[in-house]
């Protein structure tokens, strides 16, 4: 079992382990595994670019509203741009079913005891989806604010979602995730009148880690901020083309 995150596979490793493990052989194995992930991520990136696919890695803690935001995104882009989705969860196909019902192709990847997607999983998902040229590939990572930040998937952009039902100090508690973000989405703002959440404090905490980090405030249920979110996706796609 992974001592850092509790993943059930003995094959599962994290960069942080190297700092604490003094066994030379184990050290070499961990570096080899990380190198393998980075190599496959590089292959993914080249494949995405060759097909003009823009891949977005969407990360958050469980329940922040990733799937609902994707449903609103698919509805907004219907007839405008092809969208394909890789769904990551430990178990069930519930989110993939929701995405297909919204009108996009989706593949569900179940990680079992694993707490994140890796580059090889994404490569298999891409093969199964076989999205047309120019597609937007949305990768909904497993709900977790630790492990997904450590693994390159070959994506062009990383987006971190946090909802107002969480603490506004999440960036301080999970700094690595927010340091790696290209966009912060603060979701469920329709609930602000009912919760103790300081938007300005949350944004300030995040920008201490990544100055000038773009921020979009959204309510996927009410479509608040969806145009700003779509603008980010348009910019990412044009740069990836």
Structure description:
With 241 residues, this protein is an alpha/beta fold. It has a single domain (17-240), classed as 3-Layer(aba) Sandwich (Rossmann fold). Helices cover 41% and strands 16% of the residues. It has 9 helices and 7 strands, in the order ααβαβαβαββααβαβα. The protein has helices spanning 17-20, 24-51, 66-77, 94-102, 119-129, 170-173, 175-179, 199-209, 226-240; strands at 54-59, 83-89, 105-110, 136-140, 157-163, 183-187, 215-217. A 7-stranded parallel β-sheet has the order 3-2-4-1-5-6-7, with helices on both faces. Strand 6, helix 8 (199-209) and strand 7 form a beta-alpha-beta unit. The radius of gyration is 18 Å and the shape is globular. The N and C termini lie far apart (41 Å). Mean pLDDT is 90; it is low at 14-22.
Distance between the termini: 41 Å
Low-confidence stretches: 14-22
Shape: globular
Report the order of strands and helices. Answer: HHEHEHEHEEHHEHEH
Supply the number of helical segments: 9
- Main β-sheet description: 7 strands, parallel
Number of domains: 1
Short description:
This protein has helices at residues 17-20, 24-51, 66-77, 94-102, 119-129, 170-173, 175-179, 199-209, 226-240, and strands spanning 54-59, 83-89, 105-110, 136-140, 157-163, 183-187, 215-217. With 241 residues, the chain is an alpha/beta fold. The chain is globular.
What is the element layout, followed by pairings?
Layout: H1 17-20, H2 24-51, E1 54-59, H3 66-77, E2 83-89, H4 94-102, E3 105-110, H5 119-129, E4 136-140, E5 157-163, H6 170-173, H7 175-179, E6 183-187, H8 199-209, E7 215-217, H9 226-240
Parallel strand pairs: 1-4, 1-5, 2-3, 2-4, 5-6, 6-7
């Amino acid at each position: 079992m992974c001592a850092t995150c509790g993943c059930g596979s003995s094959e599962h490793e994290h960069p942080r382990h190297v700092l604490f493990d003094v066994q030379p052989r184990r050290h070499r194995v961990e570096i080899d595994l990380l190198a393998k992930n980075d190599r496959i991520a590089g292959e993914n990136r080249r494949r995405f670019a060759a097909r003009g696919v823009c891949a977005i890695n969407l990360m958050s803690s469980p329940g922040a509203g990733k799937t609902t935001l994707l449903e609103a995104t698919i509805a907004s882009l219907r007839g405008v741009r092809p969208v394909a989705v890789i769904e990551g969860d430990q178990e069930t196909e519930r989110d993939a079913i929701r995405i297909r019902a919204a009108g996009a192709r989706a593949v569900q990847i179940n990680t079992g005891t694993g707490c994140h997607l890796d580059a090889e999983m994404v490569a298999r998902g891409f093969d199964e989806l076989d999205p047309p040229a120019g597609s937007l590939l949305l990768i909904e990572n497993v709900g977790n604010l630790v492990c997904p930040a450590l693994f390159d998937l070959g994506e062009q952009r990383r987006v971190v979602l946090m909802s107002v039902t969480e603490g506004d100090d999440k960036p301080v508690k999970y700094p690595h995730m927010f340091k790696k973000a290209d966009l912060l989405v603060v979701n469920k703002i329709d609930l602000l009148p009912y919760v103790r959440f300081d938007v300005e404090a949350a944004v300030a905490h995040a920008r201490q880690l990544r100055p000038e980090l773009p921020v979009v405030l959204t309510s996927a249920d009410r479509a608040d901020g969806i145009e700003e979110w779509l603008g980010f996706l348009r910019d990412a796609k044009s740069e990836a083309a």
